[in-house]
Amino acid sequence: MENAYGVTNCFSVEKEYKRTKGDKEDMSRKYKYLSLILGLILLVLFVRSFIQSNAGPKASIVSGRVVLTEEASGLAGASLLMVDGTSSHIETDAEGYFETTAFSNTVIIPRKTGYRFVPEQQVVGEEQELEFVAYPLAELDFAKWGTQFSFDSHLDWVEAIAFSADDQFIASGSNDRTIRIWRTDNGQLVRTLAGHTSGIKVIAFSPQGHYLASGGKDGKIKIWDWQTGLEIKTLQGHSDIITDLAWSPDGTKLASSGWDRRVRVWDFATGNELKSFINETWVRAVAWSSDGTFLLSGGDDLSIKVWQVDLGELSAEFETRDNIMSLSAAPKGALVAMVLKNGVLEVLNLETGERIVPEGYQGEAAAISWSFDGRYLAAGTARLIQVWDMNEPKLVQSIDTENSILALDWGSESYLLAAGSYRGIIDLWSAESGKNLLSISGHTRAVKALAWSPQRNCLASGGEDGAIRVWDLDARKERFQLASGHGRPIEDLAWSPDGNYLASCGHDLLVRVWNVAEGEYLGAFTERIKKPFLHEKGFEFAVGMKNVSHEDIVLSLSWAPDGKKLASASWDKTVAVWDVPTGTQLVGIQNPEGWITTVAWSPHSDQVAFGGYDQAVHVYSGVTGKEIKKLKGHTNWVRSLAWSPEGKHLASSGYDRKILIWDLETDQIVRTLAGVGDLVTVVEWSPCGRYLAGGSHSGTIHIWDISTGEILYTYPGWMLGLQSLAWSPKGDQLAITMYNSIVILGKLE
Question: Is the pTM value of this prediction over 0.90?
Fold first, then answer.
């Protein structure tokens, strides 16, 4: 614009410029805002579609039927557990049909007492019509139940051993004060003879085989009718330890020797002493001549004395180079074998006076014995049995026993050798082949834990001796021992659901795991922190901390259904949940109200139940470690817990001598089992769910019908302190403990 002088108005031009520039900036801002809004809309749409595409499984209708095997009818009242993070259940109708809403990947598990199902579970997927076949489990006839077989052993070393006249039985005498009779074909214990007040030093069957004589550290000689277990008579005369016994060949007389320096000859029929020969020192051994005319004795007086029994006179004497520790006369001929204190083995010919040192003899023999025909001589040393053919004479067999031999005897009419050793072990050997035919061994202290493998017919046991043994129940013998490493008493054992892993716990405060299928020791969960650590609130033990072991005795173990997690309960008031593959602790549960004695994992969920000093049964999540419920009903400590196979009920026993059955859906006590009258230390549900077995401190076993509360079977135990029992996977047998013995109960044929 120009003014009157023809000059353009610069102010107007500048104003126009600013207005135009402002319009452009407004347009630019509007464009940016629109772009931002559009971007946000696109982002929201993208996120929404992503969420929708990655949303969890959609619920859908699932239906199906539970049918009875070989029948067209359905099974009414079967419960189907829905495992989808939160466990719920439905029941089949009168025709066995069911219908429900479930998410994909939900696991459906059929359950009903007295039945097994095929398949055991199904996963909800594209196929929404499911079918389960129910197989009824036969009810047990407890009227026919009894002891099928057992695993037994002496509690201490075996210092005396002898074959019966027909070789069908072996008798063993131990420092545990008992005499035990075993079958030679399978090693089963037939009878236990108890009566001596101290360890058994020597035993001997009568030649006709009807009677058994025993002598002990108490100086007493007892005569037994071993087939009935009755003590016939006691011969008293010795005032110190009995060192040897020998029957005359005709079985009418019994000779004995002792630390009282006496050799005595007894009339078996009357029990009267016929003769007594005095020695200047201890007499360690006696032996009859093959015709029964003479009696030989030897000891610390450096000689073998030959007594003519009828006359009561010393007939002959043979000097020795050292004290005689053991003496054995051949059943035929004039040979006598002896072991001297210096370890030398000599064979003396009483007719010629000739002495023979068997070739190849090694070590110091603790026991010697002649074969029934007098041809072979056997000597037992530390870890070695040597056999000589004395007709040659030459060494014909050398057996590495891996045990120190304390007692040795030949078969009465066979070339079998029975040996007794430390730790209560008895071995049966073939002298001809050198092969071990039978080994009788077991726990030497109380058995505190039993676990029956769910997948194979074997049983694991552990106890106060710190040993873990695995028994073959088909062969009825020990399969192997696990080098437990505990070194202290074992409190519990538990097989994983697949039967591949075995966990143990005990007084060393650790949980240990083996891959039994591969024979591999996986190790102990965590290392010990031996001292408390200091923090701002004072001293504190490493209880409940991840990757740290328990700080007190671990009393109980239980596997999760998936076999990947393991729960352990301890006297330190904690329950730990372990991840088995890594050996690390996933969850630590502390119970400030008291010690925990038992833990049990639900068979179909992540719920873990435990109980102890505070008299309550606690149910926690094994995943979060949070309490789900607390069941109150006991008036004293809770001692044992067991889930029913279908997971709907929980049995608990306590020091109040009660067994309570809980309904886990209503949290109510549905039954109290009576008729016990004693502390029930352990309860176990049968696999079929019909029965509950309980073992009491008195050793008595009861089996109840859960539906009625009736006691169906009672096994009258005779040994205090029963702490464990285990059902077989089929539910047709029950393993129990009787101190150091394991007894298998079941139907008798």
Answer: no
